[in-house]
């Protein structure tokens, strides 16, 4: 059982952000306010094809700011892509970064920023508070609602050589400003809408039960869960509804403010391990692990998990556990697979568990889990 007091010392870090329809068009003005002359615009081929990178480019041009585009970013951004972006940033003589896309381009842009300002390989910054020199100005424009890279002090980069994800956590990774516009979300495929929504739910749940939670993060986490409960199923039915899209963006914002300051837990530690080894969608990994981690953690924070369960199942009948409520929500959205179905093999569990055990997110999990405990959770989710 965790003992918490509201008198425990806590800090809360958040970027400046502008929310609402048309926020994307403020990119040029914001860059000019930061004194930026030339921007490296970091995006990916899908977002570029949807026209959002071009729209941001127009805003930069109207503000008199030149730019070059770097779109060599994959799902689960790789260290080599970050270093290629750093080369582009330096050779193009840029002095600011604009990221347009989901978590992958935003994390890649964060990596390019700190690698450039410190002139070091991105993998050297793994862990907590290991970035000595701040990054150049960074503007983030999310086109998905879930990663919260647009507000967080996290960047997750894949170390290809070792097939593992590296978590970099530093205040220097908080963007200077984020522009939260619901319109770019309308071109996102439904499967991505679902996966990123479940990522946001995992952020909110894990930060609410985290050892480092606080009254400031609790408020954001609980409201994020309520918003996801209502808006995610609805937006799957009406993906062009801007109000619903904005509700999912708000949910991502609140969940991001919560987890950026309270950190995460075993769901993310275990999802990072799978994502690094198998290159799977991060949100889907979380969705398939969440209920199993809740079941394993429950006794360490029963009141908190019960409060989450009540959001999904308001009349507690004494039979529906929080883990079952979350599982029912997942199934109602059409996520019915297992880890085995997405390619995780039983003989890989030992290695996956050892890597998850060493992930920085495990530090704030409400229950101290051994490698054997983690293996058992993987087995149940298989
Ligand atoms: Fe996540």
Automatic annotation (TrEMBL):
Residues 16-182 form the Alcohol dehydrogenase iron-type/glycerol dehydrogenase GldA domain. PROSITE patterns: ADH_IRON_1, ADH_IRON_2. The keyword NAD applies. InterPro entries: ADH_Fe/GldA (IPR001670), ADH_Fe_C (IPR056798), ADH_Fe_CS (IPR018211), Alcohol_dehydrogenase_Fe (IPR039697). Residues 193-381 form the Fe-containing alcohol dehydrogenase-like C-terminal domain. Keywords: NAD, Oxidoreductase. Belongs to the iron-containing alcohol dehydrogenase family. This is Iron-containing alcohol dehydrogenase.
């Amino acid at each position: 059982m965790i003992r918490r007091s509201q008198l425990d010392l806590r800090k809360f870090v958040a970027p400046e952000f502008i929310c609402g329809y048309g926020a994307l068009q403020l990119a040029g003005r914001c860059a000019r306010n930061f004194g930026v002359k030339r921007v490296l615009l970091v995006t990916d081929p899908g977002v570029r094809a949807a026209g959002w990178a071009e729209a941001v480019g127009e805003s930069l041009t109207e503000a008199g700011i030149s730019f070059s585009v770097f779109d060599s970013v994959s799902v689960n951004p790789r260290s080599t892509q970050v270093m290629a972006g750093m080369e582009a940033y330096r050779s193009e003589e840029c002095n600011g970064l604009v990221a347009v896309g989901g978590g992958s381009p935003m994390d890649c842009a964060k990596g390019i920023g700190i690698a450039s300002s410190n002139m070091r390989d991105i993998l050297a910054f793994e862990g907590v508070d290991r970035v000595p020199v701040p990054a150049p100005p960074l503007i983030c424009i999310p086109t998905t609602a879930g990663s919260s890279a647009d507000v967080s002090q996290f960047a997750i980069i894949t170390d290809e050589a070792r097939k593992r994800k590296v978590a970099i956590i530093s205040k220097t990774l908080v963007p200077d400003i984020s522009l939260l516009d619901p319109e770019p979300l309308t071109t996102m495929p439904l499967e991505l809408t679902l996966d990123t929504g479940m990522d946001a739910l995992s952020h909110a749940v894990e930060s609410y039960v985290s050892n480092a939670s606080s009254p400031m993060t609790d408020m954001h986490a609980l409201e994020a869960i309520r918003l996801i409960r209502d808006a995610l199923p609805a937006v799957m039915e009406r993906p062009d509804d801007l109000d619903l899209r904005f509700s999912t963006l708000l949910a991502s914002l609140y969940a991001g403010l919560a987890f950026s300051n309270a950190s995460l837990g075993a769901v993310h530690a275990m999802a990072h391990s799978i994502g690094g080894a198998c290159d799977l969608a991060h949100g889907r990994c979380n969705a398939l692990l969440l209920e199993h981690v809740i079941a394993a953690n429950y006794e360490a924070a029963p009141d908190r998990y019960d409060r989450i369960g009540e959001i999904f199942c308001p009349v507690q009948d004494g039979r529906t556990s929080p883990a079952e409520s979350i599982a029912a929500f997942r199934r109602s959205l059409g996520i019915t697979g297992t880890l085995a179905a997405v390619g995780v093999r039983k003989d890989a569990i030992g290695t996956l568990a050892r890597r998850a055990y060493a992930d920085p997110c495990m530090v704030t999990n409400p229950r101290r889990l051994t490698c054997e405990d983690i293996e058992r959770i993987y087995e149940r989710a298989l």
